[in-house]
Amino acid sequence: MKSHLLLAMIGTFAVIVGAQTQEGFISLNCGLPVDESPYDDLFTGVTFTSDSTFIQTGKTSRVDKSLNKILARQYLTLRYFPEGKRNCYSLDVKSGTKYLIAVSSVYGNYDGRNIDPKFDIYIGPNKWTSMDLAGRQNGTTEEIIHKARSNSLDICLVKTGTTFPIISAIEIRPLRNNTYVTKSGSLRLSFRTYLKSSAGYI
Predict the structure, then answer these.
(1) 43-52, 107-116, 171-180: segment of lowest average pLDDT
(2) CA 181 to chain centre
(3) More confident residue, 162 or 24
(4) What are the Cα distances from residue 121, in Å, to 65, 90, 99, 160, 182?
C-alpha cells in the first residue's frame, strides 16, 4: 500500500489545508535548487521550499526523467548522503505541540545504478523506522504523530549498509493536542484505508 502513497500524500494533507492556514507547516522539497524555491503545489496550494537551509550535509540529485510525468513535483528531486553514518535535519517547532510528520523517499534510479537504498530514520535519538525501497518504483512515505519535547526537532537518516540514505520530502503539520491522545510515546501509521469509493483518502 505504501507504494501508492506518494501521490496520495497530497490528498492526505488536503483536508488539513482546507481547514486552516499554513501556520506552523513545514513543507520541504529535498534537493530542490534554491532558485526554484518556494513554489505552491498545484493540487493543495501548500507552499514547498528547498531544504538547503535546514541541513548542511548531503548532495542533491533528480530522479530519472521517465518519472517526471508520474510523480508530484516534490518527489522529482532528492538529497542523498554519501558521507557519514548519521545526517540530520534540524527543524524549528513548538515544545508541547503534537505534529503529524511525513517523510517520503523516492529512489528513481537517480544514480543510474539500479540499487534500491536501505536505511533507518530517527527522530532525535529514537529510531522511527527502517526504509527499504526495494521494488518501490514510486517510493514510499512513512508517517508518525509525535509530540515535540523542545523547540527543535531532529530528523536523522542513518546508513545501515552499503547504500546511501535518500530523502525526497519532509512534511510537518501541527495538530490539536486533543487529536490522537496517548498516555506516552508517538503513533506510527499502521495503515490507511478507504471508507468509500473516492479519489482521495478519507
Answers:
(1) 171-180
(2) 23
(3) 162
(4) 27, 14, 17, 10, 22
